[in-house]
Please model this.
Amino acid sequence: MLDEPYEAAFQLTRAVKTGVRTAETQARRLVVLLKSASVGLALLAAHCGVASADALQAPPAAERPTGEAGPSSVRPVPTQTSPDFVPILDRWRLGIPDWNRYERPLKDAPFERGRWWDPYNQNVLKGDYPIIGQKYFIAISAISDSLLEFRRIPLPSNVSASEPRRAEFFGPGDQLYFNQNFIVSLEFFKGDTAFRPRDWELRVTPVFNVNYLDARNTGVVDVDVRQGTTRLDSQVSFQELFVEYHLGDLSPNYDFVSSRVGIQPFTSDFRGFIFSDDNLGGRLFGNLGSNRNQFNIVYFRPLEKDTNSGLNRVFDTRGQHLGILNYFRQDFIWPGYTLMFNGHYLHDAGGKHFDENGFLVRPAPVGTLAEKEVDAFWLGWNGDGHIGRLNLTHSYYHVVGHERRNPISGRSQSISADMAALELSVDVDWLRPRVAFFWASGDRKPDDSTARGFDMILDNPNFAGGGFSYWVRQGLPLTSTGLELKGRNSLVPSLRPSKLEGQSNFVNPGLFLLNVGTDIDVTPKLKMFLNANFLRFHHTEVLERLLFQPNIRDNIGIDWSIGARWRPFLIENVMITAGAAALQAGGGLRDVYTETTFRFGPNGLERTKSFPYDTLYSAFLSLTLTY
Model:
């Protein structure tokens, strides 16, 4: 008896809800019928020649998608008339109403309309809207990178010197260098724009280069001294030309494994110590554990490089095979600290090769002039991140292998060399003071059976000032040997003929480097970099053997540098970078370039100074525009 009132109330409530749902259904059907009738009348009016403005006009601007959406990429289908299902033909191009949060004309109102040339709002040309269906996108970008550089490097002279009284040892070392790259990148891919990896991707990035060098000395721009002291050159190449395919997902969190084949960029560790380049190869990569574990398995069949631009010569492979394996673990022990182990294998068959300017770069034009072969393994342990407030980067490598017919030692040798690097810094408000140390082992006994000088494959280090540092930025030719003491954009004095086109050399003097510097966030637009590097050779016996000069000291000197990076509009699309550096030569560098010589003159035996560069300098200005 007590349940009867509750049962009656339940039946009454259900009847009311049923009536409401019935009324809602009837209302929906009425709305659909009215819309259908309106469309039918509009079509009938248009067929009869009576154009209805309300029926035929485009949706008002307030109902268009934001940015530049382009035409719809979805085929129209018949309108569904079911009251319970309303189709959305193009889910990407939903109309958005106007909204001004402050109810007055301000520029920061959301939902901005765009133009096809507008990169700051949503745009179909930068992958925000599909171009085919709802899964296929295109992204286009363009970069103009301009570099103007002034530098002084010790240039050996010869009997064809361009200026009088410069035929003895050194010519004028001042140079002017200009380099212009126009880069266009096209990406065509299937997938979503965020939240999960792309299903596949095709990327093409051609580069158009123009470069100019005024060396003020003959025998620099070309092996033929009749070509003068200036050179204007151009090159067209591909820095990216690859296909990437998503092989599968490994977890519900979109951990994945993908493959990539073609010309592609790759840096094998955090700071680019061993290998950093855009080259031809295949790559298998992915992650696990919600992206905490990452891996790369890479094989490269490197291309030859254009001498003057550094770009790839697309249809010209060299006798190298390169394999790289690395593994990352994020938040290892401490949140924010990433641990990495990696391994590199290089087989370099050498061969004979002259660069674009006619200079012999393989084999090295010194000592035993025979083709050299290198088989080497680099094993590395790296870390990057922070432990509490302490920012930390460290790296250690050991290289083993075999080098056949080394031109300096004149024999085949086994390889056993080491490298270590450490950088510590702390953020103090807008300052980041920093101290760093770098060591690459040198060869103390160049004529024995073991090569102990550490060398890289193709490095581009962001360390100890990077491109702002004179020592890192500039390549220094070695007097009367056809070798470079060190290559451009490199740390190690490897004694190669060319960093880009030569071979790794494990008979070298090695390096000690101590860096003290600071990064300064002056304003949100302006950032500055101050660095001082104290440099010395590890062992100088190799240099003494090459130059037939005893007692070369190990002090290279002090490298001072200052740099600035300015974003005038607080965005990365316009970037102005400038830097100046000076290398104050120490005793070892003066010995290498033979500061004092003797010759017979009108007064008999005269002492002359043949190293007039007490300070070597570098200054550059770079403008990067990105669309």
In short: Residues 1-13, 15-27, 29-62 have pLDDT under 50 and may be disordered. The longest strand covers residues 230-249. The helical segments are 3-47, 53-56, 470-473, 541-547, 587-592. The CA atoms of residues 404 and 412 lie 4 Å apart.
